[in-house]
Design brief:
Elements lengths: L1 H21 L7 H13 L8 H17 L2 E11 L4 E12 L6 E7 L22 H20 L5 E7 L15 H8 L10 E5 L8 E4 H6 L1 H13 L5 E7 L5 H6 L4 E5 L18 H16 L3
Parallel strand pairs: 3-4, 3-5, 5-8, 6-7
Antiparallel strand pairs: 1-2, 2-4
Helix pairs in contact: 2-4, 2-9, 3-4, 4-9
The structure holds zinc ion.
Length: 302
């Protein structure tokens, strides 16, 4: 009887323990993330210098301060040719458990393109886009992750960086894009060596397909494999295990600075740089899928 009771107790402990470990990764809410996407779009276009931009910048700093242990800004000047002008721009850096040396970096751009130059109507080519997918989607997932990091601390430290100055580039001039991450990369401290970085860009399309991005696959193949294997284990089939495109995005300056950072991007988005990049083209389900993969990697990185 005593032995049986002991076996029963042991079984109970094992059951409880296994339940605890199954609960270790908090649930990422696509619905909450979608609200963050909508909220950013409610400010209107967030191209540098605009009123929507200023309001959104203050909102992002305010919101990150609710959740992160340390929030700082990294101001820089963003220059435009023809006519030559410059506006002030701001990267937003949120640190979680800053004392931990074992860290990962998550990032997205928060600015939106000032010109809908891919719009089918040429009349719209100088009108700023709303950037629901191209801008708001990546930030939305990172804001929801910030809320989870606040409630349940993972073993590793996390840095969330919202880059400015990504989307003001000109076709054929690579270095006119990704200005915020270039500034961030230039100012990296010698102590900053995250395990890896993941950049989110255009991951909210309701018709989501994320192929491997060519530069990520070439320069940080281990991180690409880690992420795609995790997605496969979680049954997130929207991560397609093939290279689909190469994009000069915010991960390039980071790769050049020695940080193994990959770009999660769904570049098969018909509304890219058009006035039709609006919240109705995005879905909570898509944000949830990307968020679930990231959350799993944060809380179970090995
Ligand atoms: Zn863009």
């Amino acid at each position: 009887m005593t032995t049986l009771r002991l076996i029963f107790l042991q079984a109970l402990v094992i059951l409880l323990f296994s339940n605890c470990s199954a609960q270790k990764v908090p649930v990422f809410s696509g619905e909450n993330a979608y609200k963050y996407l909508q909220k950013q779009c409610d400010f209107g276009p967030r191209n540098p210098g605009s009123e929507g931009y200023r309001q959104c910048r203050d909102y992002l700093i305010r919101t990150m301060r609710l959740f992160a242990d340390d929030v700082s800004t990294q101001p820089f000047l963003l220059s435009f040719p023809n006519p030559t002008t410059s506006v002030s721009a701001t990267n937003i850096i949120a640190k979680f458990q800053p004392k931990k040396t074992d860290r990962i970096l998550l990032c997205a751009h928060w600015d939106t393109r000032p010109w809908a130059d891919q719009d089918p109507d040429p009349e719209n080519h100088n009108t700023p886009i709303l950037g629901a997918n191209d801008g708001a989607s990546g930030v939305a997932v990172l804001l929801e992750i910030a809320t989870l990091l606040h409630v349940q601390k993972p073993e590793i430290g996390v840095d969330i960086v919202l880059f400015d100055g990504e989307d003001e580039g000109t076709e054929g001039d690579e270095r006119s894009w990704a200005k915020g991450s270039a500034v961030f990369a230039q100012q990296l401290g010698s102590q900053f060596h995250p395990r890896f970085g993941i950049l989110l860009d255009m991951i909210g399309d309701s018709d989501l397909t994320i192929y491997k991005e060519a530069f990520s696959n070439q320069y940080a193949p281990d991180v690409v494999n880690l992420v795609w294997n995790r997605a496969a284990n979680l049954g997130v089939t929207e991560f397609i295990p093939q290279v689909g495109y190469g994009v000069f995005d915010d991960h390039i300056p980071l790769l050049e600075a020695g940080i193994p950072c990959i770009d999660l991007i769904d570049f098969n988005y018909p509304y890219w740089h058009t006035l039709m990049d609006t919240p109705d083209k995005c879905s909570p389900e898509s944000l949830e899928k990307v968020g679930r993969v990231l959350t799993s990697l944060i809380y179970e990185p090995d």
